[in-house]
Design a protein that fits this description.
The complex is a heterodimer of chains A (369) and B (307).
Chain A: H1 2-11, H2 13-38, H3 40-65, H4 74-87, E1 88-89, E2 94-95, H5 98-120, H6 125-145, E3 159-160, E4 166-167, E5 170-171, E6 176-178, E7 181-183, H7 185-209, H8 211-221, H9 223-228, H10 233-259, E8 261-262, H11 269-283, H12 287-316, H13 323-341, H14 350-356, H15 361-367
Helix pairs in contact in A: 2-3, 2-7, 3-7, 3-10, 3-11, 3-12, 4-5, 4-6, 4-10, 5-10, 7-8, 8-10, 11-12, 12-13
Chain B: H1 2-32, H2 39-57, H3 64-91, H4 100-121, E1 126-127, E2 136-139, E3 142-145, H5 146-168, H6 170-180, H7 182-187, H8 192-218, E4 220-221, H9 225-240, H10 245-269, H11 279-293
Antiparallel strand pairs in B: 1-4, 2-3
Helix pairs in contact in B: 1-5, 1-8, 1-9, 1-10, 2-3, 2-4, 2-8, 2-9, 3-8, 5-6, 5-8, 6-8, 9-10, 9-11, 10-11
The chains are: A mainly alpha (369), B mainly alpha (307).
Chain lengths: 369, 307
């Protein structure tokens, strides 16, 4: 149904403009509505949802477009976050401005992506998943232990007191006064993240339709055929790794500035799995699906976290089950159920849905084997 | 010199445990071409069940041997039931689906198992009751406990038993046929569903034994232990050549030795820059190295690029 309306929007220009205007208005009012109705903790969650959407879109390039299963993606987020933390905190006494750090984070994370990609390009599927998973863990173990003999990352304690994001003389940590309006800090972060998320959405949409994007999809569908068609698979796959990683680096830098604190525990395997699940559950390779996945997997677990305790209290009169465990239990169950009943994700692109339904020619061949 | 011997002994013990777990990965991969990500959690459940039974019976006055045997039986039963149902629920419906689908369900199942364990046993570390006789033997200036000897012997026996089962019985032949080509095996009258279920059950039973060994050897168990152990055992399976039974054994023991020796000597080699807390890193470097330079493993068959 939704895809239908999306299709019609593409043809009807006036409807498209109206829809954009409504969506823009909703996005502009959202932080004030959420902040007033649900409180600042929920607004923080919305801010995090935007960060996760950026991450999921970055991973979507690697997993969704190019079909390379990356399970250590959070390492690039960590690279961006730690770079920000090291360059703008009392830890080294450096306070480099943000427009230097964020691009540097993107470049460094992209470099890390190329570093991971180069030796692993020959691997496919499960093997690639395991190697990237190992890479993610290696990065985390190093961050955990690089506090001796030279204290670089401050070990498991992490780095605190990181500078808030500030542009010129304006800092986002305090309420902003702008043309007589006062915008509280969380709202300002919301608008900054929204702008960057929209930029990343725009870039990925343009990438998807570009020559590079089509090459990625070709590699995903059949690497050997893509090679035969003259695609330089090695470079294109490296490009996927690098681009995905640099998006992660940007999101990581923003995370460090927003949170004011980084520690290795924020970048464990579970986070990688979470981002991967956003991509897969939402609908691999389909940008609206991935955005939906990112939004759902940030907001729903928080919803469970807030409601699991009180609901049990109301029904049984006491807390029977650990809300944290219950939340993860439901999350695991959701993963299994979605894969069993909607293996293409909740909102897949039309071509992919057809593939998963077995309407493509290769599956017909398989039936006849 | 005695440090060297000591680390060799530690490595052998650790390696035997890895090998037992790696067998579970490699059997499933050999037959279905699927990495059973939830296997590490099955080991954890085995360890927790065994530990709980030992705790409950520790004061009952039964002989130590009987207590261990009962614990082992309970753990094996629970693990086999889990292995069987995991395959039925999470893998069988997706046998023809896209490769990513069973991977995601496997992750889902591990999350479920892990947090079920967290609900049942809590977040705390559980200590293994000190019921085992602590007798140490001296070999070439290094010490080895009876428990360690028992671990290596039992693991060796189980692996030998598995080899016999696979290479010299009717069931083993059916298993090999299924791994070679499921469709043809089916035509020859092999019930491949039964074989696959049995593979998961056998792998889980081995995992239960390994779980008991880990918790007894380190005298500790907790709900999060399965992840790292599973990952390392998988590394062992890849090192030996995934899908290859003898390879899993060889890879497990080699990885155990690499880790023990690496952790023992990394401080000296790097002039104190990296310490033994980097122990966990070796497995990943071995994994990445093997996959890059020899993806078929030490004694594995050549896997095609599209694997």
């Amino acid at each position: 149904m939704t895809t239908l309306t999306l299709e019609s929007l593409r043809h009807d220009k006036r409807a498209a403009i109206a829809a954009t205007a409504v969506l823009g208005l909703v996005l502009a009012v959202l932080p004030f509505a959420v902040g007033n109705a649900l409180g600042n903790s929920w607004l923080r969650i919305v801010d995090f949802a935007l960060l996760y959407i950026m991450l999921a879109l970055g991973l979507n390039i690697v997993v969704g477009f190019a079909g390379l299963l990356d399970m250590g993606y959070i390492a690039f987020y960590a690279v961006g976050a730690y770079l920000y933390a090291l360059l703008a905190s009392p830890h080294f006494g450096l306070h480099v401005p943000i427009w230097v750090i964020i691009p540097c984070g993107a470049v460094l994370a992209g470099f890390a992506g190329a570093l991971l990609g180069a030796p692993t390009l020959r691997l496919r599927g499960d093997y690639l998943a395991i190697v990237t998973l190992g890479f993610g863990e290696i990065v985390r173990i190093f961050m955990n232990n690089l506090n001796a003999p030279v204290n670089i990352t401050n070990g498991p304690q992490g780095i605190s007191g990181i500078d808030p994001i500030h542009l010129g003389g304006i800092t986002l940590a305090k309420p902003l006064t702008f043309l007589g309006f006062t915008i509280p800090s969380l709202h300002a972060y919301y608008f900054l993240f929204l702008a960057l998320a929209l930029l990343i959405i725009f870039v990925t949409i343009r990438l998807e339709d570009s020559r590079i994007g089509r090459a990625w999809v070709a590699i995903r569908e059949d690497e050997i055929a893509a090679k035969a068609c003259g695609i330089n698979t090695r470079n294109i796959k490296l490009l996927a790794f690098t681009m995905g990683a640099s998006f992660g680096g940007v999101a990581g830098g923003l995370f460090a500035g927003f949170q004011g604190f980084v520690s290795p525990e924020s970048f464990n395997l579970m986070e990688s799995v979470m981002v991967l699940c956003m991509v897969v559950l939402g609908g691999m390779g389909h940008i609206p699906g991935v955005i939906l996945g990112g939004l759902m997997l940030t907001v729903l677990p928080e919803f469970f976290r807030h409601s699991a305790g009180p609901v049990q209290q109301a029904i049984f009169g006491k807390i029977l089950l650990d809300p944290e465990a219950l939340r993860m239990l439901l999350f695991g169950l959701a993963l299994v159920l979605v894969m069993l009943y909607r293996p293409a994700g909740l909102w897949p692109s039309t071509t992919r849905r057809r593939e998963f339904k077995g309407e493509s020619t290769t599956d017909v061949l398989k039936e006849g084997e | 010199m005695d440090i060297f011997i000591q680390q060799i002994i530690n490595g052998l013990v650790l390696g035997s445990i890895y090998a037992l777990v790696a067998l579970g990965y490699t059997m499933v991969y050999g037959i279905m071409g699927l990495i059973n990500f939830a296997h590490g959690e099955v080991v954890m459940i085995g360890a927790m069940v065994a530990l709980s039974v030992v705790k409950a019976l520790a004061a009952s006055g039964l002989p130590v041997f009987a207590v261990i045997l009962i614990a082992l039986a309970a753990a094996a039963l629970v693990c086999m039931a889990i292995g069987f149902s995991v395959e039925r629920i999470a893998y069988r419906p997706l046998r023809r689906a896209h490769k990513l689908a069973p991977l995601i369900t496997a992750i889902g199942i591990s999350i479920i198992l892990q947090h079920t364990a967290m609900l049942v046993w809590g977040r705390n570390y559980h200590a293994f009751p000190p019921i085992l006789p602590a007798s140490a033997h001296e070999i070439f200036g290094a010490t080895i406990t009876s428990l360690q000897v028992a671990i290596v012997l039992i693991a060796g026996l189980m692996m030998a038993g598995l080899m016999v089962l696979i290479n010299h019985t009717r069931f083993g032949r059916a298993m090999r046929a299924t791994s070679e080509n499921p469709q043809i095996a089916q035509l020859m009258g092999v019930d491949i569903n039964k074989i696959i279920s049995a593979t998961f059950v056998i792998g889980s039973a081995l995992a239960a034994v390994a779980g008991l060994m880990v918790s007894a050897n380190y005298s500790i168990a907790h709900y999060y232990m399965g992840f790292m152990l599973g990952l390392k055992a998988f590394t062992a399976a890849v090192l030996g050549g995934i899908g290859n039974i003898a390879g899993a054994v060889l890879g497990g023991i080699l990885l155990g030795l690499i880790e023990a020796l690496g952790a023992g000597y990394i401080g000296d080699l790097t002039g104190g820059f990296l310490g033994s807390h980097y122990q966990d890193i070796f497995a990943f470097f071995v994994l990445i190295g093997v996959l890059i330079f020899r993806p078929s493993g030490l004694i594995g068959e050549r896997v095609s690029e599209r694997a």
